[in-house]
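Title: Prediction job returns without error message
Component: structure pipeline
Severity: low
Priority: P3
Assignee: unassigned

Description:
Job completed but the reporter wants confirmation the result is attached to the right record. Sequence as submitted:
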Amino acid sequence: METILFLKLLPLLAFLAAITSSSASDNLINASKLEMFVDDLPDMPRILAYQVFNGAPKSKSLKIGMFKKKWKFHRDLPPTTVYAYGLSRETATVPGPTIEALHGVQTYVTWQNLLPPKHILPWDPTIPVASTNAMGGIPTVVHLHGGIHAPESDGNAFAWFTAGFKEKGPTWTKKTYHYPNNQHPGNLWYHDHAMGLTRVNLLAGLIGAYVIRQPSIEGPLGLPQGCEFDRPLMLFDRSFRTDGSIFMNSTGNNPSLHPQWQPEYFGDAIIVNGKAWPRLTVRRRRYRFRIINASNARFFKLFFTNGLGFTHVASDSAYIEKPVTTNETLVGPSEITDVIVDFSQSRSNVAILANDAPYPYPSGDPVDEVNGKVMKFIILPKREVDTSRIPKRLLNYPVADLSTVSHTRYVAMYEYTSDIDEPTHLYLNGKPYEAPATETPKQGSTEVWYVINLTEDNHPLHIHLGLFKVLDQTELVKSDEFKDCMMKLNDAIKCHVDKYARGKKEEVPAHEKGWKNVFKMRPGFVTKIVVRFSYIHTNASYGFDATTEPGYVYHCHILDHEDNAMMRPLKIIK
């Protein structure tokens, strides 16, 4: 009995030892002392997810590894130990290579965990977590965010595996994932999704972009194209120690309950494509930037200091119906905004991409000179011929037909606090992840969800497999009264949500009225969305069985919330 108890305590003892050792060496870099705009913006390696035989694209199999290696985030920082995706240790990068897929050409990926047994960052064994035998390896599993594929290839949080598949989670099924790429063209990204470790595995570097192209319908649009003029920009934030290592606070805000977990991670340095505050020399012409917010918790409200605007052409994984121009754009964690920037319109030779989103969003601290800057564009003076264009219309997908709605659901967001008024955990619909699935849409169906945010934070809600449109956002009146009822009954209908959802309405931004897989749920609001569990570009069936195990999930994409435990199963039925 004593031996069994000791084995169960091993992970906690190891964690406490890690806290002791890291606390003594938390010599943080003062990010304001790092000179901005000294590193060139990297263009991540590109991997074709298809092969060409006799002029025709064919299916391809890839082996992509997860490696421990050193990475330079800034000219004046020592090399940082990271986890990186790549075809080899030498070519692995942070973020990982951009995978270029073709619509209708399937891809197979064997994700290989080649990481050593001990994690480079502190993890908390007191939250729901992927647990191996005395943590003899680092659990990982890859989710293709925005992908439409079978449950077995979705990267379920309990489908994790350690190095060499030595240990596997309870929902693990296979080594090689199948991505059909039969969905509409657009932007996706891949990242780790292991239960309770997502925040630390992504902080360590396990992120990368994935693009599905369909030249037959994208080519006629005339948008900027080619590696120089069409570039993914992956944004995230990190803090560093003087030795170059990534800093993550090893003491929780409720240390007696959760020794390490904190409700949000924010870093001082803003990273783009693996470099802190990089620079890019551009021509006086149009560029396309596929901007992915890969931060744990930071929102970015992006704008140009010289007044340049953004012309939006897509949001998350789908094109919008027609271009929308804005002077600023708010991008929540895991959201993707796909924009055209016309540098020929600049009156200056320098444009700073800046950020002024408070953190936590929306009522946290204001940005400063350090985290308020993102990157620098150096604009060449000579004007040149630009054959790209911005069309009046983009891609028009079918409207969300509310007459076909088969079910209406209410999803409430809760945050729970300790006796010192610090967050202890967060739930969707008042239930832990392990509770039986309550969201069970039919394959091919359309549903309406009312998402009720009872917290003070904005939560980017991500739904796996399904795509949705945001219909309206309505503020709750007498919100404390309604929240008291919900905390007792956990039932929006019994608490008469229609009586309280009568406040002001916030207009959905025009560039976010298309099909999305993430949306920022305002605190104190009820957000109505229509969710479709089928392709948006065709009436054809998925071509795979979405009802099999281990199913899908939906969750808050603030990773610290998702890990503890703002995630619920999503079970598709026939």
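Comment from assignee: result matches the submitted record. Residues 2-23 form the longest helix (22 residues).
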